[in-house]
Amino acid sequence: MEISNVGDFQLGNALFRRQWSTGKSSSNSVDGLGPLFNSRSCQSCHLKDGRGHPPFSGITQSNSLVIQLQDSENNDNGDDAYGNQLQPFAAPGLHGEGQLSVFYEELVFRYPDDAEIILHKPNYNVSQLADGPLGKNTVLSPRIAPQMIGVGLLEAIEEEDILRQQDPDDINRDGISGRANFGYSLVNKRSMLGRFGWKASAPTIADQTAVAFSVDMGLSTPLIRVNHGDCTAQQSSCLELALFTQDTHEDTEVSQEILDLVVFYSQNLAVPESRVEDQQRFTAGRDLFNKIGCESCHTQRYVTSRIVLSNPHFEKQIIFPYTDLLLHDMGEALADRSAHGFAQASEWRTSPLWGIGLAKIVNPNARYLHDGRAGSIEEAILWHDGEGLNARSNFVGLSVEQRQKVLYFLRSL
Hints:
Layout: H1 6-17, E1 36-37, H2 42-45, E2 65-71, E3 85-86, E4 89-90, E5 99-110, E6 116-127, E7 138-144, H3 151-155, H4 159-163, E8 182-185, E9 190-193, H5 205-217, H6 236-245, H7 256-267, H8 279-291, E10 302-303, E11 318-319, E12 327-329, E13 347-349, H9 359-362, H10 377-382, H11 389-396, H12 400-411
Antiparallel strand pairs: 1-4, 2-3, 2-7, 5-6, 8-9, 10-11, 12-13
Helix pairs in contact: 1-7, 5-7, 8-12
């Protein structure tokens, strides 16, 4: 990053941490939260720019886990009464839409060598629904906030380098049939390759940021000029309150300048260096990681684009994100129970692995996979199924020492 841009990065960081207000504050630039919302700031979900966590078992609410709502009969619709996401918090005069609690069923997994590990299967309950029961076809889709590091570099990968990894018909018969997702870019006003989000539905960081401002915090931006957030037509009080507060803003609640600064900050969050104390063990773990088939989806290396107009310092960078950014069928146990746009219920974008070893240092309560069910990297591996089954089976078949080498490698990233 150029020294001249450091100030923009610091301003973006301050805005990322900013607590937004639901009422008229001393500065209109922090007004407009809600009327319904999941969080008051970006930082509240992406804790220290890292991944979030679900509620503890039996305890309600966690800012860093959201519950998306979807009509199982129509992928493009949310719940008629509650919209696309359950919002637990509300501006004064309104009630939050409902409260979430999670209970984990403990499943014992036994390796062939008799070593055991506990897997956690989540069960969700929504209570205190403010506007009546959910629709009969509404399904719950839990999502924890992902880590923010390196997203600008992922955005700078050449599109063709991602698309060439597709094998939707599994022509090479390796059991891996990744495919790209596509989404409408609000920035570029056209359909583009998706790279961000658990289903790879957002083409750019600006698109993802604008959606988060709108749905998670009820804040309008130049890309989504809806000041009532996720309020539905059935939530008349919510719409009335949004209309009442609209006159405090000349244009949108989040200005173009603020949006640009938050996007710039997000793009430029650096990736930590690998922390290798035992090079021989690290190399052995990496070789096993590749040998058992993990690298088939978690692509190790890319060279970024030769031209990156918004961030020229990203040009021609050799990066090691360990992801192909494609959708893969991960099996029924991890399925959403419904499709999501072009992504099917059991399909998920391959998560980047860089920085994964620091997840619990950044947030001691951090968990893994899209819903945070996995309490450890090892448990996350054991939940792999579908296209991940062969790699998981190969991992299970390793000796204790070999498994620990793979885990050491991953914790060093």
